[in-house]
DNA sequence: CTGTTAGCGCCTTCAG
DNA sequence: CTGAAGGCGCTAACAG
């Protein structure tokens, strides 16, 4: 059996018209119980499936949501997507995944593709520095919702955690542990708001506690273990070496820990280290790592909910709801000098 | 601007017909250079985007691939999907993600949905015990390709690692370390081939080395840390407690390690532990864990390649190519009694 | 080189 | 209650 069966096929068999079949299959009330049953049975026996593509073309609604993330194989983004999927599936939506690979051009291509695919909305954790390209989406009247890496734009909703507060909490925690020379590793460009905000939180926490902000303590990296190691090399070439490091990425923080150990430094006694994201490995590794939890799965669910609310709102106006989740400080052995109860 | 612009809109502006516009935009040669330019310019100025939905309906080809996985937020499945995406994107395909949550019914629903969406193929890591439902896919003439958790079916390609050999290698390694009472934790039903095969490899390795296979040493779990702990409790209630544990899941193995430690047992001196999948945390954790690498990203790429080959084959016959990748034994501290050089 | 026509599969008026 | 006709956006013959 090769050809897919359409409502015409089953109409022909029953000597009725396609309209009748359509009505029977869609719960239209203007139809006799007898023919409805008949249609349903033959449809089943002929292994009929509605063609959603035709439906989508007709209705202008594809029931697909495009999701753009830098990459999909981290626990964070995987979990966000899981949250989105779980929340949206019951409403009949499907999600199309695109990876930007942290590349602005690729992200733009992804947007083009998704628009062409007639997605009903785009959820995005952006890697772009400017936001002009997003107007293409809005001009097409496609709802755009940012999660995690957002841009501030009117008419666009977003779901994020309070990154400023996360940066502040992490830094204050280091100060409370007695650190006075605290470095910050920014795992992305400050044009991306989350990295900007985490840095601002860091800076403000220093100021509020009478500690000077020093440019040489702020290093930009990419989010990788190796760049964490390189950053340590750079920091420890300074005259005044840091005694605390706040990294905006768990992966970078892991590299930091590895490099510090290689240099024979004790953690947290000599240097305290805290990351960001609560990736699972932070809890399992040799030295469990303090970090900031972002609740990715819930972030995904919230993103989906914001969308559902928006399309169900009367007139489907472009509301811009800014949902800000509270991050949570997770304290583990990489920052606590008084030994915690042995883990595990 | 709300309404999306179609080729009719731009045809009207230029006083030509839609067919001309279509030709101009698609590199058809039967058209004058002048009108082509004109069309292209006005198309651009009107912010025109081709509607892929219409194209898909017309051509019967959606350029979408459905991918079904148990869950998306593990490194393994995330990486497979990344591999698929990276390989397929350049060919203009997009992927639609579905999660089965390890539930046969949900998986069936996913299949139905994907068929209705007119996907050009379905890639699946199945959670189903029987394979009858997959005939729906084939009867619709939709290519089906399994990866990782496959079913053996004629006319269906698959990309897997050699799980039998992985189980064999893991078990033999434990034996070589001097273990004689080796338990196996199967993190899934034997009706799913990978778990069956890993167990068979385990069994054969025992036999080949003159060790009796004992049913009480084989425990079925779900893939979670807590069930790993529970399994240890069960095993250590036996009279002859195991001195080696091969788990078919890294997560379960992690639970095993945690529980063994809680009981004051030394790893690997008292009990050696090996997992399966090479999830990143296995390398970072307190006691680095031996495991089997499955090369998930490459598995994704291969799956995509098998599909591309298939659709490019003359006549697009249903070939069933069975690609079997070689797993790799990763030896770390959880099994090596002679201390390795201090890691990190 | 360009216009006309038909149709992909479905739904939705409008008649009967 | 059911049939006929039109259209969603696009392409592919077939004419001219």
Keywords:
homodimer, 15% strand, 344 residues, 12 strands, 4-stranded parallel beta sheet, 3 domains, 6-stranded parallel beta sheet, alpha/beta, DNA-binding
Would you write up a description of this structure?
The structure is a homodimer of 344-residue chains. With 344 residues, the first copy, chain A, is of the alpha/beta class. The first copy, chain A, folds into 3 domains: 7-50, 434 Repressor (Amino-terminal Domain), CATH 1.10.260.40; 62-161 and 295-326, Rossmann fold (3-Layer(aba) Sandwich), CATH 3.40.50; 163-294 and 330-343, Response regulator (Rossmann fold, 3-Layer(aba) Sandwich), CATH 3.40.50. Helix content of chain A is 42%, strand content 15%. In chain A, the strands form 3 sheets. Chain A has a 6-stranded parallel beta sheet. In chain A, strands 7-6-8-9 form a 4-stranded parallel beta sheet, sandwiched between helices. In chain A, strands 10-12 form a two-stranded antiparallel sheet. The N and C termini of chain A lie far apart (57 Å). Residues 339-344 of chain A have low confidence and may be disordered. The interface between A and B is large, with 57 and 58 residues. Strand 2 (94-99) of chain A pairs antiparallel with strand 2 of chain B, so a sheet runs across the interface. Chain A binds a DNA duplex (16 and 16 nucleotides) through helix 2 and helix 4.
Q: What is this entry, summarized?
A:
Chain A has 344 residues and is an alpha/beta fold. Chain A has three domains: 7-50, lambda repressor-like DNA-binding domains (434 Repressor (Amino-terminal Domain), Orthogonal Bundle), CATH 1.10.260; 62-161 and 295-326, Response regulator (Rossmann fold, 3-Layer(aba) Sandwich), CATH 3.40.50; 163-294 and 330-343, Rossmann fold.
